[in-house]
Amino acid sequence: MYTSRHCLVSIDTKARIHPTAIVEPGSIIGRGVSIGPYAIVEEDTAIGDHTALRAHAVVKRHTSLAESNTVHEGAVLGGEPQDLRFGGHKSHLAIGSGNRIREGVTIHRGTSEGSTTRVGSECFLMAYVHVAHDCVVGDGAILANNVALAGHVEIGAGAFLSGGVVVHQFCRIGRLAMIGGNSKIVQDCLPFVLTDGMPGRAKGLNLVGLRRAGVLASDVRALKEAYRLLLRSTLSLERALEALARLQNPFVDELASFASTAKRGFAHATLE
Questions:
Q1: Which candidate, 138, 54, 44, places its Cα nearest to that of 95?
Q2: What distance in Å separates the CA atoms of residue 72 and residue 67, rounded to the nearest whole number?
Q3: Distance CA 10, CA 2 (A)
Q4: Percent helix, strand and coil across the chain, each rounded to 5?
Q5: How confident is the model over 50-63, as a mean pLDDT?
Q6: Where does a domain end: 155, 172, 188?
Q7: Interval 234-256 mean pLDDT
Q8: Number of independent structural domains in the chain
Q9: Is the pLDDT of residue 110 over 70?
Q10: How far is residue 39's CA from residue 31's CA, in Å, rounded to a whole number?
Q11: Which tens digit of pLDDT belongs to each residue from 154-191?
């Protein structure tokens, strides 16, 4: 235990805490943590080993961060949800490992009792990103400057959202999808697909993202055929999904499963 004029908290002796920082009682500070000037860590929080909270960062109650995160200046993690239904319940924010959370990012905890907003590991949230209540952000996702997620949005692993993208509540962005800058997303966006526009429309496969993820050329060819059948043919959705099943490819199967479970519908290709 560590005693200061501010509080009594559980702090590893190798942690480095600036004298102007405030760490409230009931917080757990791991080994090698760095807490910068004027940062605030509220009660009922856990800061994992080797995490850095830079100047003026705020970690609010009911928030946990795993190891090796970097939280930049002015970020606020675990704020109360901007939801008229919120009645002061105990809800949570859980953040994985190895994330880079840049200046001014805001991530809110869940709305209902016991609910959790989740951010995976190895994500990059650039300056002034907003992640609303009850969102789920998958591992390795990249959210560029000024991306705004409404409540209950799901972002698949490895997805890339360009600057200024806004996403309507309850929408899903599939794995390894890419969303073009300043897009307005009001429906689900298919995995492996580039979506762009206001509202967002499918523009082709995310070939750069697939290549960077090491997807084999044979799988890319199968996805190209799946894209044609699902988005460029005159087949009904039911017939298109039957055709996708015949391709017998795991990436295509993932695409088909996502499309078939889209409660808000999914972004189709632009008609030209």
A1: 138
A2: 15
A3: 6
A4: 15, 30, 55
A5: 98
A6: 155
A7: 97
A8: 2
A9: yes
A10: 18
A11: 999 999 999 999 999 999 999 999 999 999 999 999 99
Tokens for 131, please give them: 């992640």
Neighbours of 19 (CB within 10 A): 8
Domain that holds residue 248: 212-260
Distance CA 114, CA 137 (A): 18
pLDDT value at residue 270: 77
Torsion of CA 39, 139, 207, 218, to 10 degrees: 160
Instruction: Name, in order, each residue with C-beta under 8 angstroms of 34's C-beta and a sequence gap of 6 or more.
Output: 15, 16, 17, 51, 52, 53
**216 and 147 within one domain:** no
Enumerate residues 6+ apart whose C-beta is below 8 A from 124.
Answer: 99, 100, 102, 141, 142, 143
State the catalytic residues.
133-134, 151
- Of all residues in the chain, the percent with pLDDT exceeding 90 is 93
Residue 139 and residue 44 share a domain: yes
Confidence band for 220, pLDDT divided at 50, 70 and 90:
very high
Q: Is the pLDDT of residue 6 over 50?
A: no
Alpha helices in the chain (DSSP H): 207-212, 217-227, 237-246, 250-260
The Cα 57–Cα 188 span in angstroms is 32
Tell me how far apart the 2 most distant CA atoms of the chain are, in Å. 71
